[in-house]
Amino acid sequence: MMLPVASSTARPSVEAVLEHAGIKRFFKAICTGDQGFPSKPAPDIFLAAAEGLGVEPGEAWVLEDSPAGIRAAIAGGFTPVMVPDLVQPDDELRASVPVFGSLLDVKAELEKLAN
């Protein structure tokens, strides 16, 4: 399974979080806010990550912690997955996208899918 990550955060911070959670190996393309992409809900950063993988958006998950990021993932044609941080999803968002409590929960799901 090949996954991209796209974050408005600078690359060193993104890589540190993925490494700490033990999931960095799942991500083959990483696009970050220090690369000059427009802000979410514009899907540009996600589209660039998918292009870096050589996959169509519909073939990739987007892990996102904000409603604006979820809207960007949907606008780009991706499968959105929410891992809330500061802003919790409302009932409508919870009904429309998978919501995980932590990146460790995402890791467990990815490991199930990979087997």
Task: Explain briefly what this protein structure is.
The protein has 115 residues and is of the alpha/beta class. The chain has helices spanning 11-21, 44-53, 67-76, 91-96, 103-114, and strands at residues 3-7, 27-32, 61-64, 79-82. The model has no long low-confidence stretch (mean pLDDT 89).
Number of strands: 4
Low-confidence stretches: none
Distance between the termini: 10 Å
Order of helices and strands: EHEHEHEHH
Molecular shape? globular
List the helices and strands and how they pair.
Layout: E1 3-7, H1 11-21, E2 27-32, H2 44-53, E3 61-64, H3 67-76, E4 79-82, H4 91-96, H5 103-114
Parallel strand pairs: 1-2, 3-4
Provide the descriptors you would attach to this structure in a database record.
4 strands, two-stranded parallel ribbon, Rossmann fold, 5 helices, 115 residues, two-stranded parallel sheet, alpha/beta, single chain
Commentary on this structure:
The protein is globular, with a radius of gyration of 13 Å. The protein has a single domain (3-114), classed as 3-Layer(aba) Sandwich (Rossmann fold). The mean pLDDT is 89. The longest helix has 12 residues, at 103-114. With 115 residues, it is of the alpha/beta class. It has helices at residues 11-21, 44-53, 67-76, 91-96, 103-114, and strands at residues 3-7, 27-32, 61-64, 79-82.
